[in-house]
Amino acid sequence: MGVHPPKVLGLIGNTQKPEISEILPRYLVRLREIDFPFIMEAETATAIGDRDSTTFPGSELAEHCDLVLSFGGDGTFLSSAHLVVNHPVPILGVHLGGLGYLAEVSLDELFDRTDALLRGEYIVENRLVLEARINDSDQVFHALNEVTIDKAGYSRTIQLRTSIDGKYLNTYTADGLILATPTGSTAYSLSTGGPILEPTMEAIILAPICPHTLAHRPVVIQDDKVIDVEVSSSHHEVMVTLDGQISTKQSSGAHVTVKKAQYPMQLVRFPGRYFYDVLREKLRWGD
Questions:
Q1: In percent, how much of the chain has pLDDT > 90?
Q2: Domains in the chain, CATH or no CATH each
Q3: For a Cys staple, 62 with which of 57, 89, 182, 287, CB 3.0–4.6 Å?
Q4: Active site residue 74
């Protein structure tokens, strides 16, 4: 498959799901039986009552392993992805409920997929990550799905003056604007009428949220472009949200710059599982 078996697994889980206390301890027993090295995210270990494992804070997990397993769902996967975004560490999602776009391994498959993982029988897909800066700050935010700029819960629309590579595109009068990756094309962007893209494509979607005019349609651009959005609001506040995980409230007049991040996110995939299969099941095509 062109990849090397991992040497140390990093485990993190959604501690809000009661079933995690049953699933993860059984998984740890399996790893110990085959004497395979692993570490745990500290809060996850505490939540399941594990006092024997080596633990690290979530922010340090990727520094001490070479593959991360995220137990939960797509939301947990996104949260885990934010912890590894600056590290060349692949991440595999294990879903505890329904099939996810990101967390693709089911509990029924977990042990068999782990065996394949440890043999190096998997594929690593590179996914586009967005980098966002607000008001030219040194602080950099990252998003695997989308950067959302919206009206912060107020009832009135906002204006989003948008330029691409310094060239004026449009001023959207809308509830907000979503800047989505191909991975995020099946998330929030989809609900605005944005297109579905193959997740490994090199593109960025600009999708207005409830625009004032139907002429303001989603636009797809190459991922090497730099997008500048200047936001004005009569209620003086706007919200910038990354993957639904991190939000920061900004004043009217805020300037948001979004571009392709330096490093992609590495997702673990297995042969025989295709994007269109997941898409068809999630959207109930053919029912």
A1: 85
A2: 9-127+264-282 (3.40.50.10330), 130-260 (2.60.200.30)
A3: 89
A4: yes
| Residues 273-284 pLDDT 10s | 888 988 998 888
Tokens of 197: 């893209």
Question: Percent helix, strand, coil in the chain (nearest 5)?
Answer: 25, 35, 40
Q: Rounded to two decimals, what is the model's pTM?
A: 0.93
Catalytic residue among 74, 150, 175, 228: 74
Query: Which residue carries 């967390």 as its tokens?
Result: 103
Closest alpha carbon to 159 in 167, 149, 168: 149
Q: Following CA atoms 38, 42, 48, 52 in sequence, which dihedral angle do they give, to the nearest 10 degrees? A: 50
Token pair recorded at residue 163: 């330029």
Q: Locate 168 and state its tokens.
A: 């004026």
10 Å CB burial of residue 11 (0-12, 13-18, 19+) is buried
Radius of gyration of the chain (CA): 20
pLDDT attached to residue 37: 97
Tokens of 6: 């991992």
The pLDDT tens digits for 183-230 are: 999 999 999 999 999 999 999 999 999 999 989 999 999 999 999 999
Task: Please provide the average confidence, as pLDDT, over all residues in the chain.
Answer: 94
